[in-house]
Write a structure and sequence with these properties.
The complex is a heterodimer. Chain A contains 17 helices and no strands. By secondary structure, chain A is mainly alpha-helical. Chain A has one domain. Chain B starts with a strand and ends in a 5-residue tail after the last helix. By secondary structure, chain B is an alpha+beta fold.
């Protein structure tokens, strides 16, 4: 394990500056804008953490061997779910401000009144807390257990994790659907789409993969993770590549059906996002989230070229931010808002996330040294 | 051995032994080195110096071609050749093309991958590869690892190859005779292939037919078939009157048939023919006239049509001074609304067709009353 390095002051400065801007936003730009930003960053942290945890569980589910040497990275990234919990609890204050279903006017709205029980703040909060509890249990079993195995070297963990993985998949589906429906599509409660949870899953998994690839390359740049080779990179790249298609498939399927049926209560969602400056953002999203990464990763060499992979991972994470912005910010009405409040939030949360991940990257060994399959994973060749 | 040989096969007991032998054999340059193993061995591609398969590039190109083909095809059909408005969408709606573009991309790509691998890169059909009939075949597919030195030219020396293999550590060596490369597409082969395809279709068709006929409950998924829907000319429980087909809502107007000149004929007198007097417009007017008006008004518009007395009314002689003085609008009004025994044509003619026939009637009138002036050739 490498020596703990001092926190770079630039990160701390960014967080402090961001914090000032965040506070300023509430008073100068109004609570609506404040909470929209807050929810955006909560969703980003949560999906990134959940996507990483999904990668971990996927390995246990299918007993994958190739990913054992890199598993510690998504495990560490998944701990991002812990700071996301207080952020999410604070975000509950946004519900009466931002979510039409929880405002008093909803009682007079024929559709919303019918969903009142589900959309009301108490039940909303109960679901959120329930999701957090599930997530903490999953973290304790999968990540906590894996960290303990570093010392105990007890293969019983592998059996436990493999048994837990199917249950985790159910938990994961439930939690990501709750996040998608409550926190994102809850902003437009008259609108609904059955596939919306899957769409958010695609984005979450992609952001988890991209963050994993990025952290892996960063650690390798520091001379750590020796033994992880191009073959492992290739598999990560292939996953990223495949899921850019999955994301666009789901996103387009959702769009096309609504476009075709042209029902006012459905199509309004896209009408808003295809008007004015939002239109440009929609096309940018298609380009950045699908077309660019797809063609950047299409060849075999590209998938294992560290330089290319790093660029695509950064692109993918930015595209995920844009995706969530595109989903959440139209709720404020009017054209896209982007100014000092958004920059301050980005500084504050991005700085905070990076600080957390820096700390997390020192947790446990760089590879799950207690896992009996580590050797097999290191020997993995394409 | 006088007979030409295809290759010399050396058997190794472990993958390691095989991997160590490869560089030695490649250095000997006696023939192409090829490996046969019961499962993929990591690093063997690099050791054999296999060139990168061109299949990936082929698949990419064909995939893109598939997407373009599907797009072009659908665009041509739905926007150019036979534009039909569906669901109020523009005829050239790319959104609707995407699913088929996706499918055709996958189709082209998979076919290229499969057939390209088999036919182009593996050079099939090639019945009875010599290795398949070798003695070593059984153990190659089970627990042993083979290297072959394949003949590259006529000068292939099987004895030297066998020696090289043994020197490289092969436990056993086997010389494979050259395969029979005689043409296989004989009439017998073709007949048998076609015959088996025919029999296979027959059996499958009969099987499915009898299955559906006698065990209708076995049909796997019938939601699409059983959903409530409307059929042309069929009864339906969907509407109160029990008809599947419903008359359009009162006041419905088909595209291109917007009602104009709904007032009196006098009011229509001020309407101006919006069409230019071009060759194409006259050609269209002439077509409409001969299809729709000629029976009653006659080819010269003189009221002498081919109708018999049974019709019971006298179609107007459009060459009469009264009608020559008519403004365009009044003729147009008569075409749209009909007059007395003349039926309304609004439902048969689109707006441009109505005005084109007005132009043509004017041309007929002028032709029958031509002056010397008209003979002057007008420069086009």
């Amino acid at each position: 394990m490498s020596q703990q390095k001092p926190t770079p002051p630039i990160l701390l400065g960014a967080v402090a500056l961001g914090a000032a801007g965040v506070l300023g936003t509430y008073f100068a730009a109004g609570p609506e804008r404040f909470w929209a930003n807050w929810v955006l960053w909560f969703v980003l942290m949560f999906t990134l953490g959940l996507g990483s945890l999904f990668i971990v569980a996927l390995e246990h589910l299918v007993s994958a061997k190739w990913s054992v040497p890199v598993r510690r990275i998504p495990e560490r990234l998944a701990t991002l779910l812990l700071p996301a919990i207080p952020v999410g609890l604070i975000a509950l204050c946004a519900v009466p401000v931002l979510y039409p279903g929880s405002r008093p006017e909803a009682a007079h709205h024929p559709i919303l009144a019918g969903k009142a029980f589900w959309l009301s703040l108490p039940f909303f909060s109960a679901r959120t807390v329930f999701a957090f509890v599930l997530v903490v249990i999953a973290l304790a079993v999968l990540v906590g257990g894996s960290l303990k195995q570093d010392v105990s070297k007890d293969p019983a963990f592998n059996f436990r994790a493999r048994k837990f993985a199917p249950a985790f998949m159910a938990i994961f589906a439930l939690v990501i659907t709750l996040v998608a429906f409550d926190w994102i599509s809850g902003l437009t409660p008259e609108w609904y789409s059955d596939i919306f949870g899957v769409y958010i899953f695609a984005g979450a998994f992609l952001s988890g993969l991209a963050a994993t690839a990025l952290s892996l390359l960063y650690l390798q740049g520091e001379g750590r993770l020796e033994g992880v080779r191009q073959d492992h990179l290739y598999n990560l790249g292939a996953f990223l590549f495949a899921f850019t298609v999955f994301w666009s498939y789901i996103g387009f399927a959702q769009y096309m059906l609504m476009w075709y049926a042209n029902m006012p209560d459905e199509v309004i969602y896209y009408k808003v996002r295809l008007a004015g400056a939002w239109r440009a953002i929609t096309f940018a999203l298609a380009a950045l989230h699908f077309i660019l990464p797809f063609f950047a990763l299409v060849t075999r060499d590209a998938k294992r070229d560290p330089k290319r992979l790093r660029r695509v991972a950064i692109l993918m994470l930015s595209a995920h931010v844009l995706d969530m912005y595109w989903l959440i910010f139209p709720a404020l009405g009017g054209s896209p808002r982007f100014g000092w409040p958004e920059l301050s939030f980005a500084l504050f949360f991005l700085g905070g996330i990076l600080l957390w991940i820096r700390g997390a990257m020192e947790r446990g060994e760089d590879m799950p040294v207690g896992d009996p399959f580590l050797r097999e994973g290191l020997e993995f060749r394409l | 051995m006088s007979k030409k040989s295809y290759a010399v096969l050396g058997l190794f007991d472990t993958p390691d032994a095989l991997m160590h032998a490869i560089p030695k054999l490649r250095a000997a340059k006696l023939g192409t080195v090829e490996a046969y193993t019961p499962y993929p061995i990591h690093g063997i591609d690099e050791a054999l110096g296999l060139r990168r398969s061109p299949l990936g590039g082929m698949v990419l190109v064909m995939g893109v071609l598939g997407a373009l083909t599907a797009f072009g095809f659908q665009y041509w059909i739905s926007a150019i050749d036979y534009p039909i408005i569906t669901g109020g969408k523009s005829a050239a709606s790319w959104e609707a093309f995407v699913p088929i573009m996706f499918e055709v991309t996958v189709l082209f790509a998979t076919f290229t991958a499969g057939l390209g691998m088999l036919l182009l890169l593996n050079r099939l059909p090639f019945f009875g590869h010599p290795v398949l009939s070798s003695k070593a075949m059984k153990s190659i597919t089970r627990d042993r690892y083979a290297l072959a030195l394949e003949a590259e030219s006529e000068t292939f020396d099987s004895a030297a190859a066998a020696q090289a293999l043994e020197a490289a550590g092969a436990a056993e060596v086997e010389v494979l005779p050259a395969p029979d490369r005689s043409p296989f597409l004989t009439s017998d082969y073709i007949l048998r292939t076609l015959g088996s395809i025919f029999v296979a279709c027959l059996v499958a068709g009969l099987g499915i037919y009898s299955l559906i006929k006698w065990f209708p409950l076995l049909a796997p998924m019938k939601y699409m078939q059983d959903q409530p829907r409307l059929n042309a000319q069929k009864a339906s429980t969907f509407f109160k009157d029990g008809h599947g087909m419903q008359p359009p809502v009162p006041g419905t107007v088909a595209r291109g048939y917007l009602p104009t000149a709904t007032g009196t004929q006098e009011a229509a007198a001020t309407l101006v023919n919006p069409l230019p007097r071009t060759k194409e417009v006259f050609a269209q007017g002439r077509k409409v006239y001969s299809n729709r008006c000629e029976v009653c008004h006659g080819a010269l518009a003189n009221g002498a049509g081919s109708l018999t007395a049974a019709y019971g009314a006298k179609p107007a002689n459009l060459q009469a001074q009264q009608f020559r003085d008519y403004p365009d609008g009044k003729i147009y009004w008569a075409v749209v609304n009909g007059k007395n025994a003349m039926p309304a044509h609004a439902a048969y003619l689109t707006e441009p067709q109505r005005w084109a026939v007005v132009h043509y009637v004017r041309a007929l009138q002028r032709a029958q009353n031509a002056t010397d002036e008209d003979l002057k050739v007008v420069a086009p």
